[in-house]
Specification:
Aspartate Aminotransferase, domain 2, Aspartate Aminotransferase, domain 1, 36% helix
């Protein structure tokens, strides 16, 4: 058996004629735009905001391509990574028939997007050290499994999945394998985006929300084969990335050196805060992190969470999540914010 993309695509998507926008049909340069029923008199905000944005975000993709080393035709941009997830499920999974596999504890939107699309979710729980259980994944796969979602570095556990295990899934599952690398910039491991040519079933997701510090823009990235990207572009809304987001993303990509500096600072703060918190009697364990957060097991997680709230400090209570019992998820803040957190936790009785 081998990977056959055509057999995975929903029949209605194969037959789908995508909406053809005015800007899809027009190619080249022009001075007078009378094709898209826009307000030709302008906008009260910015002159050119009366015009629809580039539906394929080519300038953004060209700049991103130069940074990431991935060809433009292998890049999809979504309104947040959540849109990438939703488009993949809608492209490949027949509602009420097909299923996806997730490996909890993991990012919750895989389940939510599947539920919205009436696609069944099968679960292959991570091992006690938060790694893939390959036997459980194998047992979960059936003839209707279309996508396996893997998060590495994983949210909420912060660790990277072992590369050999991920490669085993890629080599032995003939559906789509999505690797969510939202936190890859904080990791010492190599991105899977450099392996697209080796695995035709691979989709790698990244984002501008974390290392780039642009969470408010809602700009997610998917890297995949040209054939998969073409299908995703077929399914997405015509103008899914607005003009302001495209302009700000282009501007931000000029600051790659600043981004790299911020990553170094966050990783240094992560190690400093880990060393400090590990000395507190209330802290039972701090799990290894390749992200801009870590999972911390504490005595009385609910009490600590509420105590920190009373001090104006918000962390994430993950104590009710399977395998994360008694744990808080703590994002690495500024040096001052981290000091406030440490002193607050040290004063908890």
């Amino acid at each position: 058996m081998s990977f056959d993309l055509n057999s995975l695509v929903r029949e209605n998507i194969k037959k789908l004629v995508p909406y053809s926008s005015a800007r899809d049909e027009f190619k080249g340069e022009a001075n007078v735009f009378l094709d898209a029923n826009e307000n030709s008199l302008g906008s009260p905000l910015i002159k050119w905001y009366n015009r629809y944005p580039d539906p394929l975000q080519l300038k953004v993709k060209e700049k991103l391509s130069a940074i990431k080393g991935v060809p433009v035709n292998n890049i999809f941009l979504g309104n947040g990574s959540d849109e990438c997830i939703d488009v993949l499920i809608r492209t490949f999974c027949e509602p009420g028939i097909d299923n996806i596999i997730i490996c909890p504890p993991t990012y919750g939107m895989y389940q939510v997007s599947a539920d919205i699309n009436n696609v069944a979710v099968k679960k292959a729980k991570l091992t006690s050290d938060f790694q893939l259980d390959l036997e459980a994944i194998e047992e979960a796969i059936d003839g209707d499994t279309k996508i396996i979602f893997l998060c590495s570095p994983n949210n909420p556990t912060a660790n990277s999945l072992q590369r050999a295990d991920v490669e085993a899934v890629l080599n032995n599952f003939f559906g789509i394998v999505v690797i969510d690398e939202a936190y890859i910039n904080f990791s010492r491991y190599k991105t899977f985006s450099s392996s697209l040519s080796e695995y035709p079933n691979l989709v790698v997701m990244q984002t501008f929300s974390k290392a780039w510090g642009l969470a408010a823009l809602r700009l997610g990235i998917a890297f995949a084969s040209q054939e998969i990207i073409q299908l995703m572009n077929k399914v997405k809304p015509p103008y899914n990335i607005n003009q302001a987001t495209q302009e700000l993303a282009l501007k931000a990509m000029d600051g790659i050196d600043q981004v790299n500096d911020m990553i170094r600072v966050i990783v240094e703060e992560r190690e400093l805060l880990k060393n400090e918190l590990s000395q507190l009697p209330v802290v039972e364990e701090i799990y290894p992190s390749d992200a801009n957060f870590f999972l911390v097991k504490v005595k009385d997680a609910k009490g600590m969470y509420n105590f920190l709230l009373s001090k104006g400090i918000v962390v994430r209570d993950r104590s009710k999540v399977e395998l994360c019992e008694g744990c808080l998820r703590i994002t690495i803040g500024t040096n001052e914010e981290n000091r406030q957190l440490f002193h607050a936790m040290a004063s908890f009785k």
